[in-house]
Amino acid sequence: MQKIPKVLLLIESSRASGRALLLGIAEYARHHGPWSFLWEPGGLEKVYGRLKEFKPDGVILRDTENLDEVMKLKVPLVIIGHKRPEIPNFVNVITDSEKIGKMAAEHLLECGFKNFGYCGIMMGQGYEPPWSILRRQAFFAKVKEAGHKYYDFFDQFPHPHYSRTAAINALCKWLKKLPKPIGIMACNDDRAQQVAEACKLCGIAVPDEVGIIGVDNDEVVCGLTDPPLSSVAVNFFRAGTEAAAALQALMQRLSPPNARIIAPATHIVVRRSTDFVAASDQFVAKALRFIRDTGWHAKISVSDVVQAAGISRRNLEKRFRTELGHSILAELKYVRGEKIANMLVETNLPIAKIAECLGFEDAQHFARYFKSIKGLTPLAYRKKFGKTLS
User: Fold this and answer.
1) Residue 43 CB: number of other CB atoms within 10 A?
2) Do residues 170 and 219 both lie within one domain?
3) Separation CA 140–CA 55 (nearest Å)
4) DSSP strand E in 131-253: where?
5) For residue 349, pLDDT beyond 60
6) Does residue 390 form part of some domain?
7) What phi and psi, each to the nearest 5 degrees, are found at residue 361?
8) Based on the structure, what is the number of domains in the chain?
9) The model's pTM
10) Which alpha helices (DSSP H) does the chain contain, by range?
11) Same domain for 222 and 105
């Protein structure tokens, strides 16, 4: 009989990212297995004392403090980045942090914010993980390119061993000093939840004074926050399938298809924490609200936006350029592009049905329109970022 590989999974399941990775691995194994999984749902700390007795054929794990111990097993490893930089000579799974930072900045810019902040995170002895650094850099680069001011919470972190209350109080002091309104990117949804909690503690209205966007689109964290958090969605499921494919190759003593696996950012999930039009110009604000509410439909034209704003097209175009730095049509395309991307990734609807739901006359026009925004056809986008195996 053919030997069934034993695969040890040292991935937490307490957050949506970990669960999505696990689901992606399981999906791959169903198609290409069978595999026998060794996994402790009660927590990773229950596993490490028993590593040798497991005798796995391969391991997929977070790069936790016990990484060195797992390396001593001398079996194929796929390492999911969390605390450390990429580990040379191993397959590494990382997030597309540059794109994540850029997308968050673009969303807050589309909301009309003129001031921006970033809230990262510290681990261990005052160490900021590389993914948080990259997200900050990309976020501020986009903000700077747009000619706006930005503020960083990096230099005001409490000691990593402080309590959650101390962390919230430190955030509250920072938030009080910031100009309002301001759009803030948090490095992940957990940190965004803390920012929202700090705003509530010190009487700052979200999103009227502070707009907040997180990362990972953890629906539990985002939904339990008041108000619910907007977030950059990251396809950890697809990263899980690619991690499993890499481990399969390593266990067969083959070169893995990818030595560097990137969990891609796919779209922005907009919730109430950024449901705000921070435009000082009342006509632009009115037009933006109309676009956010209805502009995802292909039948909505620039003329409809102009009519909703109540001023001439020439005047409104000039105000858009002054306030936002782009045209009315560019705003419509952005909103539609995000709506289409959301439906391609989050649903299993046929592409023709999505086109119909969004008011496009035919699937060909729909495909050309989407490609002009995202650089990929709807089918290619779904294959690359979708939640099922292509």
Assistant:
1) 10
2) yes
3) 46
4) 149-152, 182-186, 210-215, 230-234
5) yes
6) no
7) -70, -35
8) 3
9) 0.84
10) 16-32, 51-54, 67-71, 97-110, 130-145, 164-177, 189-201, 219-224, 236-251, 282-294, 302-309, 313-324, 328-346, 351-357, 363-374, 378-385
11) yes
